[in-house]
């Protein structure tokens, strides 16, 4: 057994834990995006009369996007795939979260 095999065995539990944390935070982020979009696009004022869904979903989207951006690279082993994943996921997360902030400002 080489040293690379042993490090791969230790990496698996860390990757599973990072994937679980990233998945939970990502689902929460998607829920925040859904709440903000539903509140902002609703034509019925009874849907979100005070705008709390838009406000809190926007505020909570940034920390959850940060958790996803930090933990997701640990799921994939180091190399070009990790770099490509980070170059795609991080701008998408923070770009959509910034659009939510714009929606909050224009509501």
From TrEMBL:
What is the organism field in this record? Nocardia rhizosphaerae
Give me the segments passing through the membrane: 15-40, 52-76, 88-106
Name under which the protein is recorded: Uncharacterized protein
Q: Which domain of life is it from?
A: Bacteria
Keyword set includes Transmembrane: yes
Q: Which UniProt keywords apply?
A: Membrane, Transmembrane, Transmembrane helix
């Amino acid at each position: 057994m080489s040293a690379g095999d042993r490090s791969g065995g230790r990496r698996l539990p860390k990757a599973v834990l990072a994937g679980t944390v990233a998945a939970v935070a990502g689902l929460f982020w998607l829920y925040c995006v859904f709440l903000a979009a539903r509140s902002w696009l609703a034509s019925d004022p009874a849907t979100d009369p005070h705008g709390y869904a838009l406000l809190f979903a926007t505020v909570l989207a940034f920390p959850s996007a940060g958790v996803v951006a930090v933990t997701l690279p640990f799921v994939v082993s180091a190399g070009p795939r990790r770099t490509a994943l980070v170059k795609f996921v991080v701008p998408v997360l923070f770009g959509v979260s910034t659009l939510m902030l714009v929606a909050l400002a224009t509501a």
